[in-house]
Amino acid sequence: MQQKSTIIYLHGFLSSPQSKKAQQTVGFIGQHYPDIRVVCPQIPSYPQQIEACLQSLIKQYDDCLLGFIGSSLGGYLATWCAEQTQKSAVLINPAAYPYRLLADYLGEHTNPYTGELFEVTPDFNQALKKFEVKNTDLLKLWVLLETEDETLDYKEAAQKFANNQLEVIKGGNHAFVHYAEYLPAIIQYLLKQHRNTK
Questions:
Q1: Could you report the per-residue pLDDT of 18-58, keeping only the tens digit for each?
Q2: Interacting residues of 101 by C-beta distance below 8 A, sequence separation 6+
Q3: Contact at 8 Å (CB) between 145 and 158?
Q4: What is the pTM of this model?
Q5: Which SUPFAM superfamilies does this one have (predicted)?
Q6: Phi, psi (5° rounding) for residue 23?
Q7: Could you tell me the domains of the chain?
Q8: Beta strands in the chain (DSSP E)
């Protein structure tokens, strides 16, 4: 039996499938695209476990994968997934270089959604470099940035993804306040890119 077409949503640091954007994605697709499945995994807290998680997802949904949506750290990981699979991805306020950013987050953290306690160390940040994609030019990416992101400097992502489809929206915040209104276009982008590769 043929599997349902699938979009994988990757959440950010200290987040979960219960986050607002993840739930908006599930709700919108469930209402308007019932033939598409949304998979929102709980991304492991430690980088050493993240690769196994992503590889397992890629293998499981390889035959029916439309593409990825990734927010913040999830955008960084979605870029890696796009390179691994040659599928398209939409990046929402992506962390261009999270291993630099998290240097300011050394120490213990508790995921507010799961209650899991974990520690960010220099080795943690070094391990994140494994997912670095140095040249994104040939990847099918649509990058959405809001200029008032209080967590990330949007200019870093704007520079990194300058040769991809890039949209910079004035205002907003790290949560990307315009997400709901962009969701229809995001799904259409992933569907179009998928059709163009068939």
A1: 999 999 999 999 999 999 999 999 999 999 899 999 999 99
A2: 95, 151, 152
A3: yes
A4: 0.94
A5: alpha/beta-Hydrolases
A6: -70, -35
A7: 5-197 (3.40.50.1820)
A8: 5-10, 36-39, 65-71, 88-92, 107-110, 117-120, 141-146, 165-169
